[in-house]
Amino acid sequence: MPLAAIAQLRSTSSPTENLTACLTLIQQASAAGATILFLPEASDYIAPSSSASLSLATPLATSPFILGLQEAARQHSIAICVGVHAPNADGTRVQNLHIYINSDGDITQSYQKLHLFDVNIASGPQLQESASVEPGSAFCDPFSSPVGKLGLLICFDLRFPEASLALRARGAQILTYPSAFTVPTGRAHWEVLLRARAVENQCWVVAAAQVGQHDEEGKRRSYGHAMVVDPWGRVVVDLGEEEGVIGVFEVELGGLEKVRREVPLCRRTDVYAEVK
Ligand SMILES: O=C(O)CNC(=O)[C@H](CS)NC(=O)CCC(=O)C(=O)O
Fold this sequence. Notes:
By secondary structure, this protein is of the alpha/beta class. The protein has helices at about 15-30, 50-55, 65-75, 160-170, 185-200, 255-260; strands spanning about 5-10, 35-40, 80-85, 95-100, 105-110, 120, 125-130, 135, 145, 150, 175, 205, 210-215, 220-225, 225-230, 235-240, 245-250. It has a single domain (about 5-260), classed as Carbon-nitrogen hydrolase (Nitrilase/N-carbamoyl-D-aminoacid amidohydrolase), CATH 3.60.110.10.
């Protein structure tokens, strides 16, 4: 059975530093025999402000961070799922992207985050993602990878079951949520949401995560707990609060088929709308 690796990372506002950290993780994943590595949302950088994020965004084709990952994917013959930023068409906002680099180093799939994290919780956090980020307007159709059919989503998308159901309806076997959850919302909601998405979709769920403090001022901090959940809802990997680590796991698709056979989820679309 093919092996996969999931990473937990503390990105800073320096893409150069973050590339170095990611290259180490790629090396470790490859040495462990993984055919694919899942890296978190915003692996290229986490900026302390909207304006800083805008000024750091670089087109994929010329981004040293992306080119570095592509080269490493080729060298180690490993596929990479990773969250990154890119400027939008007119350069006024950034796109929050989840891209797939195949083991030849080519970017073959890309998904732009649909749901933006605009929250104002009195006791924190207060974050306005839409101030600097342009929302996407389409799914990326599930596609084959060394470990099964991948459905790409990002972080806050996790709170919208319809998005996962739509990808499942299109054939996803593995739902992936590269994330940078905040600490308070992570403590309250992270694991329960990931396990719910796995159970209700009868899919593997892979959620690479950012962890720790991203800037000196302490404005951005992430929850960690990068997690893999199997289609029965069992937590297979939980990377806790460690920084710069990977977890290795086997994606067992026979078990997925068994769960889908044993617990058929026949929807009552005569009563409520079908998610397509
Ligand atoms: O800012 C970047 O560059 C990277 N993007 C993020 O960190 C995003 C937007 S601020 N974070 C989330 O979606 C957290 C969701 C969350 O914590 C929840 O749903 O509870």
